[in-house]
């Protein structure tokens, strides 16, 4: 998820700053742009919230791309979630509308109290 990448890049940036005593030694432009992008589009800023989001979505046995789409885009309704990730509603999966609704409610609580 974008919020996880933001935390990783922030940690890496801090490491680079500690290692670099030379003021002329800067991080690459690609690194800076990547960091700006994930910070801008991260729905969750607090590291504890990021961990909680990952834990909640992992409970639903989602594929990694499903987890990332839902974590990045934060749909508010079951219909939005299914439109963004149609595979969560496919046959043979234990995701009925009530389970998806509970998952979305859990995510919105984290966002609300962040």
UniProtKB/TrEMBL annotation:
Organism classification: Eukaryota, Viridiplantae, Streptophyta, Embryophyta, Tracheophyta
Which organism does this record belong to? Carya illinoinensis
GO biological process assignments? DNA-templated transcription initiation
| InterPro entries in the record | RNA_pol_Rpb4/RPC9_core (IPR006590), Rpb4-like (IPR045222), Rpb4/RPC9 (IPR005574)
Q: What is this protein called?
A: RNA polymerase Rpb4/RPC9 core domain-containing protein
A GO cellular component entry from the record: RNA polymerase complex
- Every RNA polymerase Rpb4/RPC9 core domain range: 1-114
Please give the Pfam families that the UniProt record associates with this protein: RNA_pol_Rpb4
Return the similarity comment: Belongs to the eukaryotic RPB4 RNA polymerase subunit family.
Superkingdom: Eukaryota
């Amino acid at each position: 998820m974008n919020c996880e990448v933001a935390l990783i890049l922030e940690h890496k940036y801090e490491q680079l700053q500690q290692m670099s005593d030379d003021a002329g030694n800067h991080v690459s432009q690609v690194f800076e742009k990547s960091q700006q992008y994930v910070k801008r589009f991260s729905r969750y800023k607090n590291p504890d919230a990021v961990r909680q989001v990952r834990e909640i979505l992992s409970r639903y046995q989602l594929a990694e791309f499903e987890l990332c789409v839902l974590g990045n885009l934060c749909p508010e309704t079951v219909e939005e979630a299914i439109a963004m990730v149609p595979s969560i509603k496919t046959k043979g999966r234990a995701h009925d509308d009530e389970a998806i609704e509970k998952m979305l409610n859990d995510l919105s609580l984290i966002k609300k109290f962040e």
